[in-house]
Each structure stands twice: as structure tokens, then as C-alpha cells.
Amino acid sequence: DQFWRKDFELAATVLKCHWLRYSVPWQTIQPQPDTWDWSWCDEHFDAASAAGIHLIIDLVHFGVPTWLPDAFGDVGFPEALETFARAFGARYRGHPAVASVCPINEPLTTAYFGGDAGLWPPHGVGLRTYMLVLSRLAQALSRSIRALRDSMGEVEIIICDSLEVAMTDEPDSDETTSPHLVESLGADVARRMERRHVVLDLVLGRVDQKHALHHWLVHHGFPSYDLHWLQRHAQTVDVIGLDYYFHTEVEVYTNPEGYYRQRAATKPWGLYRAAQDYWRRYHLPFMVTETSAAGTDEERHDWLNRCIGDIRHLRADGFPCIGFTWWPLIDHLDWDGAMLHQTGHIHPVGVFGLSRAESGELIRRPTGLTTTYRHLIEKGDEAVGSVSDRLLNAVSVAGPETVARRHVEPKERPVIVCAHQPWGMVRTRLHHLAREWAKDRQVWFVDPVKRVFSPSQAEHRTEALPDAPFLYRFQFSTPQSYDVEGAAAALLGRVEAEFAGSSLGLESSIYWVEDAAVVVLLKARPLPPTVVFDPPARYDHQETGWTKAALQQADAVVFRTPRQQAHFGSWCRGRQHLLEDGVDPRHFLKAMRTDTPVPYDSRFIVRPNLLYFGVIDERLDLGLLDRVAEATFGLNMIMVGPVIRVAPESLPRRENLFWLGPRPYEQLPNYLRGVEACILPFRQLPSMEHCLPVQVQEYLCAGRPVVATPVGSLPDRAWHGLTLCKSAEDFARACHQAAEPIEGNVRREFIRQVAGRSWHRAARAGAALMGGLGR
Fold first, then answer.
1. Angle at 19 between CA 15 and CA 25, to 5 degrees
2. pLDDT tens, 320-374?
3. What is the DSSP string of 12-78?
4. For 98, what's the count of Cα atoms within 13 Å in the CB-facing half-sphere?
5. Are 139 and 728 contacting, i.e. CB atoms less than 8 angstroms apart?
6. Nearest by Cα to 485 from 546, 534, 542
7. How far is CA 61 from the centre of its chain?
8. Residue-wise pLDDT tens digits, 693-731
9. Three-class SS string for 365-400?
């Protein structure tokens, strides 16, 4: 701190750098609540201005005055920071050196170190104190932003926080060291990926009852009245600051003893991919506000080049990355020990290095990074490309739905999914897989041909879907009537015509297809594409010829159940794979939460209740359902789903049968919350002898017992909580038993046996299969 004027010269004269992140010492400026001394700021800001330096000011960078005895957890901390921010803004409004203000640096890290890990004041341990500290930080940010807007309205507000990415290769593994994890490592990773946004979501007033972390926050002690206050006092920010290091991408894993561990990710996403998540969530300009690497000059150069390459890629694709900060200008002292020791240890991460003279003076010296960094600054946009306002304008004019998707690198082959069920009716296997794949590659979901009654109604259109970053839908409707082959040919012809001349390479794409006729026609082309056949477990015996040809010609065949694989596998010539259906644990576990509201259209139905959701068609045994409803008077049956291929008049009418019609997938946990058990009254049709209804895993994952007929592969599954019944009398008796109260540990057993079979895991296996197929 004796040579800060020389450090300004190093930045402005040697590096040609005229933007610095710079922290002010609150404890020096306000040594007591009613005492102010601005001389430090006056001297430093005037010197920066004279050197032509613009400062991005941190009002708080991991330290507060000692008159706040509980530090960031102090009940007076939010008001104190608001007072400090207002006084700062009033004094330095219009000062040429003060360009941007970050009220609190890395609030997420601060909350963890001070409230959960116990390393920093107030040394809280566990989620209870973590939530209190997090609440204080969010309130302080909200109040200080408001004070800065009032006192220096033209200032740019930036919130800098750690860019975190968590991943695991063991999503279904239970860790045994923490009481906070009750599902799996996969659930922990999903929570971490939401938690990294929680501070900004709180400040922006976005954390309401629909927020993914609302239950977690309140359950562990975040005061609900503070959440309400933050919603009522939502603030805005101008720039998102991302602090990105090699250790901010982590991999969670278990050791042989069954305890979970964490390490730097062995397969990191990289800045290019990771930063886009923040853009898609907030649609705000962002910058790298911290990064660096220790080690040799070569290792530090390698990290710098990787980051700069990613920023070049981000800008080329239109993402508004407006700046890059190497932290620090000079080597740190004691920073590598979380500031828990004071030994004067030099941590060699600066653009300029430090060496200690015999007198104790710390000598600044250039490093191998100094010249490289100066050249990057001098080149400006030439080094990384210019900032485009294309995406920002797209958001401001048309909203986030029309934001351009990132360019997908050639190694990520697009996938064209041809499904039996259109998008939006129900969510089936291919809907789930498409959503998962579309997180990091282009996926085009092709609806089956739709028959319309008038030529004026015929249309074809494409649309970007909000369900995943790179997910698109293609629809084709026509008044013509086709047989199986004709419908497949018409659909493929329309797809080819739609994408002719586009950037989507149809021949280099991978087709993932349910329709056997589509597979055969694709492989009959002069230059056949790569085709994966995913035959439905439910099939039509009249189309066995098409099925056999598709099984023989496809580049790979994926079966959904072992029974289906055993029956059809001999036709596949060794290209067969078992890829069983999954479940969405995070979604259906909402049914276990006490704060999940029951929908208004079933809330009035007197419990106990039973639920069926899914397509209501010829597969349902309506006669069985009618007899069971008659025999279970006192139990109400709620039927949710679209009615297709059966006449609505054929549905049995009973006082305890409620036909609600189709409902969105997002609301299924809400309906499950209001029932005691679930039913699957399917007919035992020859076409279903190899199927495994996907609903049974979703019911069990919601902690509900299931009563079903022994259809398809269900008899092959020894799932706890699943009861199979052949007669109406047995079915009715089992329904009464399933509606009885169940202990919590029994419900958790229902969940545990299926929660590890996630759609994410299934999609990852499918992606690995596609990665092994030649172009």
C-alpha cells in the first residue's frame, strides 16, 4: 500500500491499461458509525483520474468495519452498507475516475465462507447460519443499489460473483457425509447449478414460490418475510461480472468408502459454454471480472489464451462479453490461504511479479505475461472481435424467445428426432431425450404428419422452443390421406424442402426415429444419413414388415426394455443397445413438498384420491375402470390426459370418477400432491407385451404407491410400492390398501429405487451412442 501511485503508472504507462477493478477500505473511511474520513478515496481517485484510469469500485471486498460485530451476518449490516453507499454516491457523483460500482464482491462466496464453512466472520457453520448471512447480503445489495441509483444515478452497477459449474458422473450415488442431501449427487449438482444464481435472483426479486430453490431456502431457514421484502424491492443491475478460475468448475464424486468429494472438473465446460447460461437467464451484458492462474509463465499463458479464445468465440456468436480482467495486477500476498494466515507469502499470479528485497521492500518486476497482456490491450477489438448488440437488440425488441442460439461446432452433430407424438400433447420418451440433448447441440423435433380437413389449413412451419437452448420444432399438416409409406415419404420430402440451402446439414445429421417406415426410406437414399431406430415398445403387428426392415437397416437400434430386446434383437445384426426410459427426479419430487399447491380443479375433491395421468385411448381398460370405481366408493379417481382414438361418450361416468382432460407436464407434481396413490388400468393387448409404461417410475418418484394391471414388462420389475392385479376385485382391494397412510421412510424407498434412472443419464448414454457412429 506504499507504492500504489507506482502501481497506477504500471497499469497506465507500461500495460496501457486504463480500466482497473479497485476496492476501497470501508473500515478506514468509516472507522465509527458516525465518523467519516474520505481522504483515502480523494487521494486515490484523483491520482487515478490524472493517470487516465477508470475504476470499477468494490465498496466491499470481503471486509467490513469492526463496529459490525457479526460482520456480514450482523443485523445492522444491510442498513450500514446502504448508508455507506449513499454517502459514497453523494460525494463522488460525476468523478471522472469512478466509472462503475460493485456494492459487494462475490456475495455467494462470502455467504459460504462466513455462513456455512465457518472460515470468516461471523463463523457460521451449516445451512441455518448460511441462510441468515445470505439474507443479510441480499438485503444489503438491494439497499445499496437503491442508494447508489438515488445518489449517483448515472453510475453503472455491476454484481461480480463466482461463475460456478458443478457436474458429476455419478448422478444416482448417495453421499453420506452431509444431512443436506437426501436424494443423490445428481440432485446436489442440480441444486448447485441453481444456487450459483440465487444472489442475483434475490436482488432482482425473482425468488417467489415458483423458484426452483424456494423450498430449499425456506426449509433451511431463509426468512420468508425477507423473501417477500426482496420481491417488493426488486432492483436492476447493468452488468454481470463473472469470476472464473480453473477451480470454479467442480466435479462431485464418491470415494471407495462412500463419502463424497469434490475436485476441479476433469472435463470442464470452459468459459464459452459456461458464460452463456448467465446470458440466457438474465439477458444482460457480462464481463470476466476475475481470472488468473498460478504456475510457470507457460501455464499462465495457456490459461490466458484459453480465456481469450473463448471470449473471441462468444463475441463472434453475438454474446455481449464487454470486458476481461486478470486478477491481480501484482502478485497477491497470503491470498491463496483464504486470508486465514498472515505470513506475507507471495502468491505468484499477477501480471507483474513481486520479489522481496533484503530490506523487506516488495519489488515489482515484469513477468512473461506482461508483454502479452499489453499487446492484447493495444490491439483492442482486433484481438477478440467487437461487441455486437445483435442479441441485446433482439431481447429488447422481441423478448428472450427470439434470441439467436449459439453456433454449434461441427463436432456436435445435429440430431433430427422423428416421433410418433407431436410436441406439446404429452411428454414421452423422445420429448425428454430431445430436451436433454438440446442443451449442447442442435435438435430438431419433427412432429408426425397432421391431417387437416381443408387445404387452407395446410401449413409447415419451424419454431424455436423455449424448453432448451438449441431445441427447434418442425410441423407439417396436409389435407391428403396417406398410408404408412406415403406419410413417411411426405414428411421427409417436406423436411428436405424446408431445410434446402440452410446451414443444417441433413446428410451429416443423426436421425433418431420411432417410425420404421421413415428409417427404411432414409436408408434407401443414394447418400443415406446416420439413423438410430428407437422402436416403440408398443407396436402394430400389421407393420411387422416395416419393423423388421428398419431393424436390419438402421445404423443402431435402441430397445426400451429387456423383453423388447429379447424379442426383436435377433434381427439387428449386432447393432442393438438397451436404453431404458428414465424419470425426472427434480420435477416429481415436488409432489413430496408441503408447499406444492394442489390445483384448484382437484383441490375440492374429497380425499383419499387416486390419480392416472397420460393419454386416454384404447389402451385403457374402461370396463375395468368402471367396475373398480363402483367397488371403491369412498375413493375418488382423478383422470388427467387428452382423450384420443376413443369416443368421449364411452368414458364411464361415476360420482367418484373425475375426467379433467389434458394438463401441462409442469403441473403433474401438483396433481400428485393431492392424491394418496396412482393407478395404471391398462388392457393387456398383444401390441403392449414389450412395453413398460413410463408413468410407473414417475408415480414412484413422487412417493406414491401404484396399482396396475400386469401389462408388458411390469411383471419383470420387483419395485417396492407396485402392486399388479388381474381382476377388478383385486384391483379395487389394492386401491383401498394403497390409499392407507404410509410412513415417510416407506415413501423414500419408493423414490430411491427409481430416482437414479434419470432422463439426463439416459440422454447421456444416447449421446455416447451417437458419438460412436460414423458420419
1. 110
2. 999 999 999 999 988 877 777 777 888 899 999 999 998 888 999 999 999 999 9
3. IIIS---EEEEE--HHHH-SBTTB---HHHHHHHHHHHHTT-EEEEEEESS---TTSTTGGG-TTHH
4. 27
5. no
6. 546
7. 28
8. 999 999 999 999 999 999 999 999 999 999 999 999 999
9. EECHHHHHHHHHHHHCHHHHCCCCCHHHHHHHHHCH
